[in-house]
């Protein structure tokens, strides 16, 4: 098998960081096209939302298992195969007018990207050690946040000038370019493959879930990002139906959200040595206060895009902060099982927020500032409750 060459290590690191946002790009780039897809495909808004949910569920579920496969059979070859599947699934979407088939292909994309992103997160654990490893892994969520910043912004213009299929042309081209670069510069990085047998895999997963700090982290991560998912599902319809603005404006709203998540991640990296539990509780408490303010301001009928986005930016900045803190902790918690730990961390959290986010967006008619604030309050209160049973444990971790 082709091994990663020392002289290509830096280039491969850059490629890993370029592929990390692929999951976010595949989710966010076509958000401004939701209303147009409803009309063009002759379907419902719930079915269009289901194209996202199908992707998120398969992406999340697959990561629960692909980590152990990557730990046993390596990262490189499976990444190449997955990039091929990603490219072909986008081509299939471009050629299809069937919403059922598009949902199926999005499900396949989720699995393919699950392999790619899990492999690239494990890359940093394989290649780097000590402070360098800590530095690069804390950058993962910051780099990942580039997708929510750029994707809907680009998608808004693609929708306005070329239509919704242009988004999937972009994804196919992106996948092809990355495939060619991976073939040229990347290679296998795993040093000691883990045995692939049921008993060993069961033991690894049991070790992960027995660690309460790790298990509660996966739940908190899912609830935290659920806020962003509900925003992404709801805002195209609020902006384009309630306020009668263009898809480009949806892109700008997503841009503001993405920048705030990025800044929150950067702030978390800057405060990386501050007490763990104190950072979490302070950020979540502030989120609760801001979400309550957003709700009561909405009750006073101050329902404007400026008001909505002001609260969204503050809430998403704090979301980026808390997500970076716990994600960095979880993926470095078990370095001997880097692929499995990274996959379960991301996969478990994706299952939590994709199911909770889709159900909340479907049950709660989110059409203005007040109803959007209610969705944020649901997630913030759930996070507070999730953290309480392990409060003493997390305090001990922060002192360790």
Keyphrases for this structure?
82% helix, mainly alpha, 400 residues
Describe it for me?
- It is a single chain.
- With 400 residues, the protein is an all-alpha fold.
- It has a single domain (9-399), classed as Up-down Bundle (Growth Hormone, Chain: A).
- Helix content is 82%, strand content 0%.
- It has 17 helices and no strands.
- The chain has helices at 9-19, 22-28, 34-40, 45-73, 76-94, 99-127, 130-144, 146-162, 165-185, 198-210, 212-242, 247-270, 276-299, 305-331, 338-363, 369-387, 391-399.
- The radius of gyration is 20 Å and the shape is globular.
- The two termini are 40 Å apart.
- The model has no long low-confidence stretch (mean pLDDT 85).
Q: Level of helix content?
A: over 70%
Number of domains: 1
What's the overall average pLDDT, rounded?
A: 85
CATH topology descriptor: Growth Hormone, Chain: A
SSE sequence, one letter per element: HHHHHHHHHHHHHHHHH
Radius of gyration: 20 Å
CATH class: Mainly Alpha
Q: Count the strands? A: 0
Ranges with pLDDT <50 over ≥5 residues? Answer: none
The structure class reads mainly alpha
Shape: globular
Biggest sheet features: none
Beta-strand residue percentage: under 5%
* Level-2 CATH architecture: Up-down Bundle
Quickly count the helices. Answer: 17
